[in-house]
UniProtKB/TrEMBL annotation:
InterPro entries: PRC_barrel-like_sf (IPR011033), PRC_RimM (IPR056792). Residues 84-147 form the Ribosome maturation factor RimM PRC barrel domain. Gene3D superfamilies: PRC-barrel domain. This is 16S rRNA-processing protein. Pfam families: PRC_RimM.
Length: 152
């Protein structure tokens, strides 16, 4: 039985073992991924071992699938967002933007709330804007046009 899985982005891969949350009271609590195919509906079609009927598949509807950290791709960055709070953010063109006061965690991207001389800035935390993010010290970005209140 193949089950549609929707996530942003889909990190599920053949050979992984996933744990649906919340777990079922009866039946298997872990499932091995047999195959993964792209789905035109913004997701993946996943075949799980031991999911052989529609009834089995329906048990997974609406569940979050957890996977062990070791199974994630090497380039997948897990970030402890609390370590970003208090860090200075510097723009390549405008200099210091201020400090990160909060990280809003979203399904597709995080947003940094930066407080400083330009007021509050809400910057999407995406690779396109972030140039350098060392473990310590200031973070260098190129803030997208329109996010700064210049001349106000």
């Amino acid at each position: 039985m193949t089950v549609p899985v929707h996530s942003l982005p889909s990190l599920i891969a053949e050979g992984m073992t996933v744990v649906p949350v919340p777990p079922a009271l009866k039946g298997p609590r872990k499932f091995s991924v047999i195959s993964v195919e792209s789905d035109d509906r913004e997701g993946s079609l996943v075949t799980f071992e031991d999911v052989t009927t529609i009834s089995d598949a329906e048990e997974l509807v609406g569940k979050t699938l957890l996977v062990e950290e070791d199974c994630l791709p090497e380039n997948f960055g897990l970030v402890n967002t609390s370590l970003l709070v208090g860090r200075e953010v510097r723009d390549k063109e405008h200099g210091s933007l201020g400090e990160i006061t909060e990280v809003l965690v979203g399904p597709t991207q995080n947003v940094w709330v930066i407080e400083g001389s330009y007021g509050q800035i809400m910057m999407p935390a995406v690779d396109e804007f972030i140039h350098e993010a060392p473990v310590e010290g200031s973070i260098t970005v190129s803030i997208p046009q329109g996010l700064l209140r210049l001349g106000e």
